[in-house]
Amino acid sequence: MQTKRMTLPGGWLPYALLAPQVIVTLIFFIWPAGQAFYQALLREDPFGLSRTFVGLDNFARLFNDPLYLNSMSVTAVFAIGTTLLSMSMALLMAMAVNRLIRSRHAYTTLLVWPYAVAPAIAGVLWWFIFHPSIGILPYMLDMLGYRWNHRTSGTDAMLLVIFAAAWKQIAYNFLFFLAGLQSIPQSLIEAAAIDGASPFKRFWSIVFPLLAPTTFFLMVVNVVYAMFDTFGVIHATTQGGPAQATNILVYKVYADGFVGMNLGSSAAQSVVLMAIVVALTVVQFRFIERRVNY
Questions:
Q1: pTM of the full predicted structure?
Q2: Domains in the chain: ranges and CATH
Q3: What is the SS3 assignment for 126-158?
Q4: What's the pLDDT score for residue 205?
């Protein structure tokens, strides 16, 4: 059987096909990143009328600021908690739906809907659910002897934003885990069951290793999501409080730059945040990916 190979003509066509993506990348990533790095080297008044070149002084001030160091530790706790909770819940739901036969598509549709909710709306929903005065969950917790109040307790506030951010991301993780589970040959699981392997043994020895590529991909995506895309959740629920307990790095960039009008420090924080995310991604691909079997 003879196969035909299609070749695109040379000249301007390949560049024309790449041009839209290149233009979008330059306008919405390269240029803002360059502007942020340039402003991080300056000290300017809130109205932008005067500028002074200070070099790396803004970065030195950051790492000597206890509030900024606290924000880094808060971000680490928030990112780890959000990633673990959203991925574990998504995997449990995907395994439950994967066992269904007739109503699988209906359950999949219902579980995907929360992903369409904006982060700020998700924050408002969970703010009402956990409101100390009108929320249903604080009322139930009070019956069990626990006084919930995220406005005064830093632990309660952190749990609130983790729940809200994780709930928003569960649907995204669920889709990928479900697709990964459906791609696993059932003959492997059935053979292990015939050999007497327990359900937990089958999951840990067969299912979870075969889900390693999907798990690795979702781990990278969820870490980036927790550090960048959760501003709306924080702003709608706690606004970084109480006492800086939920003031993650991306929200501190907003608070110092748009509220405090410290533009140089805010730009330096955005550069550091971008460097942290890039470094985490590189570490994950260089070291963690080696343990992933494709």
A1: 0.87
A2: 77-249+274-290 (1.10.3720.10)
A3: HHHHCCCCCCHHHHHHHHCCCCCCCCCCHHHHH
A4: 87
What pLDDT does residue 101 have? Answer: 62
Averaged in consecutive runs of 10 residues, what is the pLDDT profile of the chain (294 residues)? Answer: 60 85 92 90 80 89 92 95 95 87 73 84 93 90 92 94 94 91 86 84 87 89 91 93 92 90 90 88 74 59
Amino acid sitting at position 270: S
* pLDDT for res 202: 86
Query: What's the token pair of residue 159?
Result: 């749990």
